[in-house]
Specification:
Blueprint lengths: L6 H4 E6 L2 E8 L4 E5 L8 H5 L3 H4 L4 E5 L14 H16 L4 E6 L1 H12 L4 E7 L13 H11 L3 H10 L9 H11 L8 H4 L2 H9 L1 H14 L4 E6 L7 H10 L3 E6 L6 H4 L1 H12 L4
Parallel strand pairs: 3-4, 3-5, 5-6, 6-7, 7-8
Antiparallel strand pairs: 1-2, 2-4
Helix pairs in contact: 4-5, 5-11, 6-7
Length: 286
């Protein structure tokens, strides 16, 4: 498998009853599904383009764009709310499953909810943040507040401020990296559904709804039967590390891997360690 995979050669579409789902696919072997997080200019390609060549050496790797992101259809509702149904539509339409799933942030949240409600579909679950129960850190976290500020007033400076909150080492935020996100975030043809997900009422709900969120999180985590790996950056300012301790305890077969000097984008900031850790975890079933 070449380390030089392009957007165009891996890009595909699947027709579903709700609209077209865009995805990338590369590699041979058993199937593996990657689910991206949320944020300005995010897509499956933006999150996982660097990891795809490595994972595709051992797996037929599918990278899905959620509705409202990338080149998938624009949903009527909040993209997070429709995420699980879209993944189920994708698996059904592609004839996939059971299979391992890797989800970053929002993608980890969606994957966890599917694993809880459809245990027959997910053989192994890897969450890069996005799951757990934060009891000690303030809510909403810094990264989410900066994200709302960008959505309300999308300037390049605010994009950079948000991106800096996503990593430990801001040196990885090269001009090329920032420009890629800026172009995607301001593309007039791209879905604008991020406004349905991140806004002032959402921040207020996070402040006031912590108890309700805790009940929902505990219910979901305790239902997950698939062997699970939670990967978290020690310096994550979106889903703080201490929240992952609850996932480690509440998910029956859960392992926690903490990466030092690492923020929310573990698969980008600590690419090599992330890939080797995840591949070793997935290989136990092969």
């Amino acid at each position: 498998m070449s380390d030089l995979l392009s957007f165009e050669e891996t890009s595909r579409y699947l027709d579903t009853p709700k609209g077209k789902l865009h995805y990338h696919v590369a590699g041979d072997g058993p199937p593996l599904l990657l689910l991206h997080g949320s944020g300005p200019g995010v897509s499956g390609w933006a999150n996982f383009r660097g990891n795809l060549p490595v994972l595709a050496r051992e797996y037929t790797t599918y990278v899905l764009d959620f509705p409202g992101f990338g080149k998938s259809y624009s949903p009527d509702a909040n993209p997070l709310a429709v995420g699980p149904a879209a993944v189920l539509d994708f698996l059904d339409g592609m004839g996939l499953g059971p299979l391992p799933v890797i989800g970053n942030s929002m993608g980890g949240n969606v994957a966890a909810r599917i694993a809880a409600e459809h245990p027959d579909l997910i053989t192994r679950l890897v969450c890069i943040g996005g799951v757990g129960l934060s009891l000690l850190s303030p809510s909403p976290p810094e990264g989410i507040k900066l994200l709302v500020e960008f959505v309300e007033n999308p300037t390049r400076d605010r994009l950079v401020q948000w991106m800096e909150s996503m990593v430990y080492d801001t040196g990885i935020l090269t001009d090329e990296f920032v420009e890629l996100r800026w172009q995607s975030a301001t593309d007039p043809d791209a879905p604008s559904d991020i406004k349905k997900l991140y806004n002032r009422p959402m921040l207020e709900a996070m402040r006031k709804g912590r108890a309700f969120g805790a009940v929902d999180a505990v219910s979901t985590l305790t239902k997950i039967q698939a062997p699970t790996l939670v990967v978290v950056g020690r310096d994550d300012r979106v889903t703080p590390m201490e929240g992952a301790l609850a996932a480690m305890r509440l998910i029956r077969q859960c392992e926690l891997h903490v990466l030092y000097d690492c923020g929310h984008w573990a698969m980008i900031e600590r690419k090599d360690e992330f890939e080797s850790t995840v591949l070793a975890f997935l290989a136990r079933d092969r």
